[in-house]
Design a protein that fits this description.
The protein is α/β, with parallel strands linked by helices. It has 2 domains: 4-177, Aldehyde Dehydrogenase, Chain A, domain 1; 179-307, 3-Layer(aba) Sandwich (Aldehyde Dehydrogenase, Chain A, domain 2). The chain is built from 14 helices and 11 strands. The strands form 2 sheets. Strands 8-9-10-7-6-11 form a 6-stranded mixed beta sheet, sandwiched between helices. A 5-stranded parallel beta sheet has the order 3-2-1-4-5, with helices on both faces. Strand 4 (151-154), helix 8 and strand 5 (172-175) form a beta-alpha-beta unit. The longest helix has 20 residues, at 4-23. The two termini are 20 Å apart.
């Protein structure tokens, strides 16, 4: 039986492997290139750059001291059993944290991957099992979950309703749509606004930690924002699927005579909704800090993280850091490891 120490070592070795591979281009070509190409061919949103970004974030999460610090605050137990994982596929290997948590808890992961993200997550699982062969018995990929004991499922608001009904009689975590919000005060530097562009455009804006809405003070001038994000345009405008979305929503806004601001790769639309479509960023004016706080608090269940250079609710993320979550940044704020240790 694998001990916690064994499991931690296996993930630490995977982190070392990823870190070394991504830092050495020659090694990268020999080991990863075919996997990266296959994943992008299956899902054109998963560009090489986006996959490397996701793998780098995972590598940082798997540093030995990070893993040790993460797990030492929990009272581990010897509970066994399996956990069904229904993974999302909006960004590369987005379900890896759930896989990590299930295995660290000593459970077997029964994984139903998204059809949009099978290549990379299966590669990581295979590499992990190669580094620690006993883990082969703890990971199984399936097309459909059959009577799971525990479930962690991530999906849209519609699929979440189905999951909650279907798994109502077993312990579960069901995640719905979430997006992220950035707060601007008007005194941000060009560098900060440029970093905000990473929060908006990484993974083409498809992640729950991507900023989909800006909260701005009344009278805010978007000129500096547009200038600061111009550097992202070349990459975005070369991506066919992204620009198809840009052209589509531009046509929709024009036909509906809906006011919008635009450059040549992003629309800005005044809208109270948190979620915005690809190539579009919503914005909303606030009148005062209290007004802003009230608006965000009202929508907290729809917000994954808040990006700002000033504190407001106490858990803001710095500009440019939304897509680099720590191992303790649990999706939807639900402590997955604590949950697994309690069921």
């Amino acid at each position: 039986m694998l001990t916690l120490s064994d499991r931690l070592k296996a993930f630490a070795y995977l982190g070392i492997y990823l870190d070394k591979t991504l830092k050495e281009p020659d090694h990268f070509q020999n080991d990863f290139d075919s996997v990266i190409q296959k994943a992008e061919k299956m899902n054109p949103w998963f560009t090489k750059e986006n996959q490397i970004m996701a793998l780098n974030a995972i590598a940082q999460m798997l540093k030995p001291d990070v893993l040790q610090h993460w797990t030492e605050k929990y009272l581990m137990n010897d509970k066994t059993g399996s956990v069904g994982l229904i993974m999302a596929g909006n960004i590369p290997a987005v379900g890896f944290h759930d896989l990590l948590t299930v295995l660290i808890a000593g459970r077997k992961a029964i994984v139903k991957p998204s059809s949009s993200d099978t290549v990379l997550i299966e590669f990581l699982a295979a590499k992990l099992a190669a580094l620690e062969p006993q883990l082969k018995d703890y990971i199984e990929f399936v097309d459909k979950l059959q009577k799971p004991e525990v479930v962690i499922a991530t999906g849209s608001d519609n699929s979440a309703m189905y999951f909650e009904h279907y798994f109502k009689n077993i312990p579960h975590i069901i995640r719905r749509n979430r997006n992220s919000v950035a707060i601007l005060s008007g005194d941000e530097t060009k560098e900060e606004l440029s970093l905000l562009g990473k929060d908006v455009f990484s993974y083409f804006g498809l992640g729950c930690r991507n900023v989909s809405k800006l909260m701005v003070p009344e009278g805010y001038d978007f000129k500096n924002f547009f200038e600061a994000i111009q550097q992202y345009g070349d990459t975005l405008m070369q991506h066919t699927k992204y620009m198809n979305n840009y052209d589509y929503y531009r046509a929709i806004f024009l036909m509906e005579q809906k006011p919008f601001l635009t450059n040549n790769f992003l629309h800005l639309v005044e809208d109270a909704k948190i979620a915005s479509p690809v190539s579009t960023l919503h914005y909303q004016y606030y009148h005062s800090p209290d007004d802003l706080r009230q608006s965000l608090t009202f929508n907290l269940e729809k917000i994954q993280c808040i990006v700002s250079h000033k504190p407001l609710l106490g858990d803001e993320v710095a500009f440019g850091r939304s897509q680099y979550p720590s191992v303790t940044d649990y999706a939807d704020g639900v402590d997955t490891l604590e949950f697994l240790l309690s069921v």
